[in-house]
Amino acid sequence: MTATASAKPAPSAAATPAGPVAVRIGGVSKSFQLPHQHYSTLKERALHPFRSKSFDELKAVRDVSVDIAEGEFFGIAGRNGSGKSTLLKLLAGIYEVDQGRIDINGRLSPFIELGVGFNPDLTARENVVINAIMLGLTAKQARERFDDIIAFAELEEFLDLKLKNYSSGMAVRLGFAVAIQVDANILLIDEVLAVGDAAFQQKCFEQFETLKAAGKTIIFVTHDMSAIEHFCDRAMLLERGELVAIGAPGDVARKYNQLNFGRVVHTEAEGEREGDRVAAEITAAWFEDSGLLRQTAMPQGEFCHACVEITFHEDMQDPIFAWSLRNESGLAVMNSTTFYHHPRTGHFKAGDTIVARTGFALRIAGNRYTLSPSIAHRGSGGDIVDVREDLVTLLVHSSRITGGVVDLEQSFEVLPVTS
User: Fold this and answer.
1) Which of 95, 108, 250, 411 is most deeply packed, by most CB within 10 A?
2) Adjacent-strand bridge partners of 7
3) Residue 114 confidence (pLDDT)
4) Handedness of CA 173, 178, 184, 190 (dihedral sign)
5) Domain that holds residue 393
6) Which of 355, 387, 354, 358 is closest to 373 using CA atoms?
7) CA angle 88-238-369, nearest 5°?
8) How many domains does the chain have?
9) Is residue 238 exposed (0-12), middle (13-18) or buried (19+ Cβ within 10 Å)?
10) Distance of CA 322 to CAs 206, 307, 342, Å?
């Protein structure tokens, strides 16, 4: 299958995998016209035939090029409105490309949008046969595979119920069950699987493993970065229709999280404050990465610095600096103080402004964290000069959900039991 509008440059070497190519996307672009004036009735259109018909142009996909190899499990990630579903519909032939070329080498089975290909006024029994035939099976093959389709979808009790009475989750189960029964080399799977319940999603993921082992080419659109890392051989990231990253799933997942969370607006939402601030006061705080660049969001596992700016109003000898990092539940996941590790912090004069920095690896769960820094006179640390609760926020993002508060380094081994 080939879709073309005009010749474009070949995909870059970085986007070209080894081995035979199942899907080639070369310089593909797609735009939509969004009218400024909307008519809700024929009467309005008849009464105002000469009303201005101006449009905005939405560039949904912009000059995207990539080759996908036979048998490859390829992920497409992107935020809402990034163009990933539009690209999938271009691959499926639902939309025509405006520029570029798409070559499909094999039979395609799309599972793209909830309810596409189904007639809501027909029963599941009738829809399964019709949809399977539309996807390339003969009527005989559709009937032979009917029981397997219904069994996978777990809809035996609802065979004669019209689809318009199905829940969205039931329709997803039926559509996916039909798609995987088609004798296709290439499967297009959109993020509609997120509509299904957890048990069915797990069943679909197990089916992915089976299809992958059978050498099927799978193109998978999702927001779930853990699924990208678990299943995909390679992945690509789209933003505003443009290809911004392509490569190893873990690298693309980190890029997605940086893009998705790195633009969080940083506010210094100060909470309670203690201390007389006579000798010194905390004037600012922020987080830095390992390259000492300020960050408001960082990936799990990266090395981080918590920085506190302090201005001294009086001379101080060996003040105690401390940091407390709390998650959204208010649980302190880290308390650090110079009292134990660096008791000799130095001598500071009135008028000095310094930055106290502590570094640590973000071996903590994905969450939003707040930093509460403090400074105290030398001694036990009880003579507080200034404490600023929840002064600055850091979003730690992760593609893995562990369920724990921290993400400690771990080892694993299996040992035989000896008598």
Assistant:
1) 108
2) none
3) 54
4) negative
5) 273-397
6) 387
7) 125
8) 2
9) buried
10) 48, 11, 11
pLDDT tens digits, 89-107: 899 888 999 999 999 998 8
d(CA 378, CA 316): 9
For 206, other C-beta atoms within 10 Å of its C-beta total 10
Percent of the chain at pLDDT > 90 equals: 34
- Report d(CA 169, CA 346) in Å as an integer: 64
* Distance of alpha carbon 258 from alpha carbon 298, whole angstroms: 7
pTM: 0.63
Asked if 196 and 166 touch (Cβ cutoff 8 Å), the reply is: no
Q: How far apart are CA 378 and CA 202, in angstroms?
A: 56
Structure token pair of residue 233: 């051989």
Query: What whole-number distance in Å separates Cα of residue 41 and Cα of residue 32?
Result: 22
Residues 216, 181: contact at Cβ < 8 Å? Answer: no
CATH code for position 7: 3.40.50.300
Residue 281, both tokens: 């006061």
Task: Classify residue 410: in a domain, yes or no.
Answer: no
The first and second tokens of residue 416, run together, are 């035989």
Q: Which of 122-136, 226-240, 254-268, 357-371 has the highest mean pLDDT?
A: 357-371
Specify burial of residue 250 (Cβ count, 10 A radius: 0-12, 13-18, 19+): middle
> Tokens at residue 45, please?
């259109």
In 393-411, which positions are buried (b, 16+ CB within 10 angstroms) versus exposed (e)? bbbbbbbeeeeeeebeeee
| pLDDT value for 398 | 81
Q: Do 364 and 310 belong to one domain? A: yes
- pLDDT score, position 54: 66
DSSP label of 156 = G
Cβ 349 vs Cβ 312: under 8 Å: yes
* Per-residue pLDDT band at 343 (split at 50, 70, 90): confident
Is residue 267 over pLDDT 50? no
Distance CA 43, CA 45 (A): 5
Co-location of 154 and 301 in the same domain: no
* pLDDT reading at 229 higher than 60: yes
Q: Are 11 and 105 in contact (CB under 8 A)?
A: no
The CATH number linked to 346 is 2.70.50.60
247 with 281, same domain? no
How high is the pLDDT of residue 14?
46
Residue 195 has pLDDT above 60, yes or no: no
